[in-house]
Amino acid sequence: MARFKEQLRKSWMLLSVVVISALVRCTMRLTITGGQNIPRTGGHLLAANHVSLLDPLLLAWAVLKRFPFSPLNAPAKEELFRNPALGLLLRSWGVFPVRRNGRDLASIRKLLDLLRTRRVMMFPEGTRSTTGELGKGNRVVGRLVFESRPVVIPVGVTGTQQILPKGKSLPRLFRKVRLDFGPAVDLESCYHLPACKETYEEILRRIMAAIASQLGKHRQGNLIGRVAEPEMVGTR
C-alpha cells in the first residue's frame, strides 16, 4: 500500500508539471534564471517577494519542473483550506494551513522541522504587495532561519502582478514574467550571534536585500531595512 501511495504521489506531481507547463506556455512569456542555485537535497528555504496569487503556483511549478518528484512545502492562510476540494489539492502539493492572527505554535514547530531537512517556500513580506514594490519583511522569518539554519535561496518574482494583480479575478494574458533564483544568502556570521531580536532582524535584512538584488531594484534600500512585527507568514 505504501508503495502504491508513493507511486500515486509521483504520478500526480508529474501530471501537475505537465498541465501547468501547458498553461504557462499558453498564457504568459516566462523566463527562469538561476535554477541551478536550488539545492537538490537538504533543508533549504526559497524566500521570494509576493505580488500576485500566481506567485506560489509558478514557484512550485518551476521547482517541480526541475525536481519532479521532490515535494515543495509551503505555509498558506487557513482560509484557503475551507473549501474541501481546494484544501485536498493544496495538501497534495505540500501546502499546509497556518493561522495568521495569533501564535500558531504547531505550525511554527512544523516549519522548523521542515526547514531543517526539506525544501520550503515562504514569502517574508507575509502578504501581497499592492504596488509591485518589495515591502518590509517579517521578523519571524529571521527567527525561523536562525533556529533551523537552512540554506536560503532568494527569489525575485516580476510580472505576475501584470497578469493577476491583487484584487482582480480575471487574468491579463501574454505578459512577461520572470523568476530569478539567486545564490544562497551568506548568513554564517549571524549564527554566531546571540538569539535575540537584533539577530533575527539582521538575518531578515540580509534575506530581503538578496531578494531586492534579484529584482534589480536598487532603490529598495530604504525598504529592506524595515521589519514587520512577528506574525505567521503565509499567502494572501
TrEMBL record:
GO molecular function, one term: 1-acylglycerol-3-phosphate O-acyltransferase activity
Keyword DNA-binding attached: no
CDD domains cross-referenced by the UniProt entry: LPLAT_AGPAT-like
Pfam families on file: Acyltransferase
Keyword Cell inner membrane on entry: no
GO biological process, alphabetically ordered: phosphatidic acid biosynthetic process
UniProt pathway annotation: Lipid metabolism
Matching SUPFAM superfamilies: Glycerol-3-phosphate (1)-acyltransferase
Keywords: Acyltransferase, Transferase
Residues of the Phospholipid/glycerol acyltransferase domain: 44-160
Protein name as annotated: 1-acyl-sn-glycerol-3-phosphate acyltransferase
